Amino acid sequence: MSGDTDVGADPKLTPGARRILEVASELFYWRGIHxxxxxxxxxxxxxxxxxxxxxxxxxxxxxxxxxAARDRRWRxxxxxxxxxxxxxxxxxxxxxxxxxxxWLVPSSRGCSFVNAFAELPDExxxxxxxxxxxxxxxxDLFRDLxxxxxxxxxxxxxxxxxxxxEGAIVSHSIVGQPDAATxxxxxxxxxxxxxx
Length: 196
Fold this sequence. Notes:
single chain, 196 residues, mainly alpha, Tetracycline Repressor, domain 2, 9 helices, elongated
């Protein structure tokens, strides 16, 4: 979702692989996956193509690593907020909206997952599967939190909240609406309050 490059959270990566992934993440996000070749990534990382392939195996695997790092950071941010808000059911449901303003700051090019989805039409591409898993995880998180709160139809409300959440990202990046996250949160709060 964002354009920032803190990919060091994966302890399995060597320092060289971490550098490759940081550079690739920036390039994929800002220029697009198909617009960036392994020659460019290797050159800007200060490594050979052979090193890049030794560490990641293929460009597709590097794309998947880029998206997995983004997904990991997003989930960690949301789960940390859930821990911080404690047991208040409404605050828990709204936690993904509460972290969205912070997440959007470095993300003027929109959601990295949506951008990747547009570039990866092959359903079997490992990156595309990660995109689907990330969006499904968020919808399921909303549903589970709503069910815990005793909402009658958590599936429908979860779909509505996901639509608001994703719409805020689009409004922020494409329309240039700086308050998109807070506007979406206010709408989500209204929906959740009525349902509880």
